[in-house]
Amino acid sequence: MNLKAEFALCFLLGVVASSWGFLEHDSWITVELLHSLANSDSFSFRGNVTIPSLNSGLANVEQPALSNAELDMLKKLALQNEFYRLKATVVYSNGAKAQFITSNKACRLLQAQLNDVLWVSLDPSGYVTGITVSQDTAPATVECTQEDVSKLVESQFSTDVLIRHAELAPVPDTAGFIQKVEREREARERGEVRDNRGFFAKYWMYIVPVVLLVFISGATNQDGAK
Q1: Which of 89, 105, 139, 209 lies at a 20 to 30 A Cα distance from 111?
Q2: For the segment 90-148, what is each residue's pLDDT rounded down to a tens digit?
Q3: How many other β-carbons are positioned within 10 Å of the β-carbon of residue 103?
Q4: Using an 8 Å Cβ cutoff, are 125 and 23 in contact?
Q5: pLDDT tens-digit profile of 193-205?
Q6: What are phi and psi of 82, to 5 degrees?
Q7: How far is the first Cα of the chain from the last one, in angstroms, to the nearest whole number?
Q8: CB of 119 within 8 A of CB of 160?
Q9: What HEC string does 180-213 produce?
Q10: Full-model pTM
Q11: Conformational region of residue 184, where left means phi above 0, alpha means psi within -120 to 50, and beta covers everything else
Q12: Rounded CA gap, 99 and 74, in Å?
């Protein structure tokens, strides 16, 4: 099998392998959000995010308001300087699921008045590789005080969803390189390869010894004459 045939086979296998992916790049996904309002492993429902088109990045966010008991738990979490944890379950168009967990300081969430940003990272095939939550506003203090907690006036999350697409690295022109190697090999077999180098580049290995011999013999004759 020559190089061209090997490249064609590798390319065909790559196409077949990529066709096995179940998620198209412009498919839709839904994300179920659960959060932990206590320093435990228990999670409760927070809301749903629907992204009809991964290319457009438009999202529909539905999040009910927090109850008074949930607000008290979140304030207690902030006063203890604990982490607010968010569990995101991605559901693809074919029913497959993927789960991600992200966390942030509960104090920062209160200082931002429950405004946060949900980042959804995608690979080139459209698979979700990560989900993280953050706040745009910088924290006023490192730790929350009772005064900071009392400033919370919102009881419902306001979430912006941002899609982060992976950037493809430059792909080398493998096909062109293999074709060039094939043409050079075939030309060598037919004897059609021409040497376009200059005269000195071709015959320097013969010229240099002659010059050295002439120089040495000239110096020897001068010594003899003296």
Answers
A1: 89
A2: 999 888 999 999 999 999 999 899 999 999 999 888 889 999 999 876 666 678 888 88
A3: 15
A4: yes
A5: 566 677 777 677 8
A6: -95, 175
A7: 72
A8: no
A9: HHHHHHHHHHHCCCCCCCCHHHHHHHHHHHHHHH
A10: 0.62
A11: alpha
A12: 23
